[in-house]
């Protein structure tokens, strides 16, 4: 019997990338349906059938179930491959902190991109108001990363491993690594979150993901600063 692979509605450099990275580490077959939703209605139409919000990422599992919401997808994938170590298990003393920070990245940080990517959604066509929204959300993202760094790194240091939650890479590492590449970009993230910066640089350089990053979120000269103010 041929196993149906996972199907991901996603796009280069988008919120589907940590999910694709997780599947790469898991060695699971997957196909990506490219749907860069920010490019307009025809791209949104591709994902509308599986996600009425017309957002990526959306995952269709081999059993045919659709899961949306990046944090939920990442946690689900890790939980369904418990030997992978991609999440602390239900019996782990760190499960609560894992769920806390997965949800935090999604709710406090990723959610701001709905307005950052298109400030007119909230403030209309006024360029001055749009610039203020960009600046204010950049500051908020910086502050949220700083708060996470100050709250999570003491535990991380106690655990003493190379990753946020110890010796093994988890989907939290993948999530923070990718979301921190977006505006206001890594240079501000490095200022805000010096502890987590060491970890994301390690994940950027992970040889298991080198070919994947090159394909799905390529590094190039100056990428850490690009659009820093935006
Ligand atoms: N809460 C969602 C947010 C997803 C999201 O904002 N996706 C972006 C691309 S990275 C998108 O599709 N934006 C288009 C839109 O919101 O209209 C998640 O965590 O998956």
Structural class: alpha+beta
| CATH structural class of the largest domain | Mainly Alpha
Quick one: biggest sheet? Answer: 4 strands, mixed
Nearest-angstrom radius of gyration?
Answer: 17 Å
Helix content range = 40-55%
Mean pLDDT: 96
Provide the list of bound ligands, each named once: glutathione
- Name of the CATH architecture of the largest domain: Up-down Bundle
The percent range for strand residues is: 5-15%
* Count of individual helical segments: 11
Across the major sheet, the strand order is 2-1-3-4
Q: How many angstroms does the end-to-end distance come to?
A: 49 Å
> What's the total count of β strands?
4
* Number of structural domains: 2
Poorly predicted runs are: none
Shape estimate: globular
Order of helices and strands: EHEHEEHHHHHHHHH
Provide structural commentary:
The protein is an alpha+beta fold and 230 residues long. It folds into two domains: 6-84, Glutaredoxin, CATH 3.40.30.10; 95-206, Glutathione S-transferase Yfyf (Class Pi), Chain A, domain 2 (Up-down Bundle), CATH 1.20.1050. The protein contains eleven helices and four strands; from the N terminus they run βαβαββααααααααα. It has helices at residues 17-26, 41-48, 70-79, 95-109, 113-116, 120-123, 127-159, 171-179, 185-192, 194-204, 210-216; strands spanning 6-10, 30-34, 58-60, 66-68. The protein has a four-stranded mixed β-sheet, with helices on both faces. A hairpin with a 5-residue loop joins strand 3 (58-60) and strand 4. Helix 8 (171-179) crosses helix 10 (194-204). The chain is globular, with a radius of gyration of 17 Å. The model has no long low-confidence stretch (mean pLDDT 96). It binds glutathione. Residues 14-15, 37-38, 54-57, 69-71, 106, 110-111, 113-114 line the site of glutathione. Glutathione binds next to helix 3 and helix 5.
């Amino acid at each position: 019997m041929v196993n149906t692979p996972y199907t991901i509605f996603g796009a280069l450099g988008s919120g589907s990338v940590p999910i694709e990275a997780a599947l790469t580490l898991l060695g699971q077959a997957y196909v990506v349906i490219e749907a860069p939703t920010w490019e307009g209605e025809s791209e949104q139409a591709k994902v509308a059938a599986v996600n009425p919000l017309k957002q990526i990422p959306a995952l269709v599992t081999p059993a045919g179930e659709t899961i949306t919401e990046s944090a939920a997808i990442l946690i689900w994938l890790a939980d369904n491959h418990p030997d992978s170590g991609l999440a602390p298990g239900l019996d782990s003393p760190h499960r609560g902190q894992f769920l806390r920070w997965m949800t935090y990245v999604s709710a406090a940080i990723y959610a701001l991109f709905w307005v950052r990517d298109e400030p007119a959604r909230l403030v209309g066509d006024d360029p001055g108001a749009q610039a203020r929204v960009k600046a204010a959300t950049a500051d908020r993202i910086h502050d949220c990363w700083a708060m996470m760094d100050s709250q999570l790194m003491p535990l991380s240091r106690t655990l003493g491993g190379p990753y946020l939650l110890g010796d093994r890479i988890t989907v939290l590492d993948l999530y923070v690594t990718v979301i921190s590449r977006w505006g206001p970009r890594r240079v501000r993230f490095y200022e805000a979150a010096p502890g987590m910066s060491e970890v994301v640089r390690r994940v950027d350089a992970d040889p298991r993901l080198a070919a994947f990053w090159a394909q799905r979120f390529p590094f190039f000269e100056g990428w850490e600063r690009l659009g820093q103010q935006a």
